[in-house]
């Protein structure tokens, strides 16, 4: 399935840019985590969902987190992190983090909207910032945060046949989550969850 950024723009326009609160998060597949929705003061974070405008078909830029990190080491993730007090908006935070982590210059990035906030099992309320990245950029990987960066075809990620529901025994209980294995890349957890939200919002 080949998908383009023009098609994504059309789907976004058809939705009138609305971002409904659909209750996205790790609690959706794990009913005993419903308390996550009721946190009085969740930690705020933002990630960039970078859709690259390749001429043949759009792709998504993802990273592999550095292996020495204390949390989520070696996992596949979107560029992003905490929203700092000096960040003017989630968009500003996502762009800053993308530049810090992989050297993606903001002038190549057009933010086009937000996906519904995603509540993670670690207590973050994550704002996914949907964006289109123009070709011609170069990356500079920050080894303190990222091991590498790579692209996955948007069509692969938005094909429900590539979405798997799996589980692991975590924190004393069985936890369910989406995965989207791509070759030797194991996309799962929050990243797969946000991609699933993108699918449900625009491609289901």
TrEMBL record:
Keywords assigned by UniProt, alphabetized: Hydrolase, Magnesium, Manganese, Metal-binding
GO annotation (BP), single: nucleoside diphosphate metabolic process
GO molecular function terms noted in the UniProt entry: coenzyme A diphosphatase activity; magnesium ion binding; manganese ion binding
Pfam families: NUDIX (PF00293)
Cell cycle is among the record's keywords: no
UniProt domain Nudix hydrolase: residue ranges: 42-178
Family membership noted in the UniProt record: Belongs to the Nudix hydrolase family. PCD1 subfamily.
Protein name: CoA pyrophosphatase
Organism: Aureimonas fodinaquatilis
UniProt lineage: Bacteria, Pseudomonadati, Pseudomonadota, Alphaproteobacteria, Hyphomicrobiales
């Amino acid at each position: 399935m080949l998908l383009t950024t023009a098609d994504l723009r059309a789907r976004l326009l058809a939705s009138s840019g609305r971002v409904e609160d659909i209750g996205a998060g790790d609690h959706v597949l794990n009913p005993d985590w419903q308390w996550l929705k009721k946190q009085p003061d969740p930690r705020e974070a933002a990630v960039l969902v970078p859709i690259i405008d390749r001429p043949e078909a759009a792709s998504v830029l993802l990273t592999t987190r550095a292996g020495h990190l204390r949390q989520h080491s070696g996992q596949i993730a979107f560029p992003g992190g905490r929203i700092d007090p000096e960040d003017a908006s989630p968009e500003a935070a996502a762009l800053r983090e993308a530049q810090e982590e992989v050297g993606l210059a903001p002038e190549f990035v057009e933010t086009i909207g937000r996906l519904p906030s995603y509540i993670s099992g670690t207590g973050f309320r994550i704002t996914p910032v949907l964006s289109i990245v123009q070709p011609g950029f170069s990356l500079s990987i920050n080894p303190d945060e990222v091991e590498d960066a790579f692209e996955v075809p948007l069509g692969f990620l938005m094909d429900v046949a590539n979405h798997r529901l799996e589980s692991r025994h975590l924190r004393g209980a069985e936890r369910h989550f989406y995965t989207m294995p791509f070759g030797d890349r194991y996309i799962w957890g929050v990243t797969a969850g946000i991609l699933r939200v993108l699918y449900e919002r625009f491609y289901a």
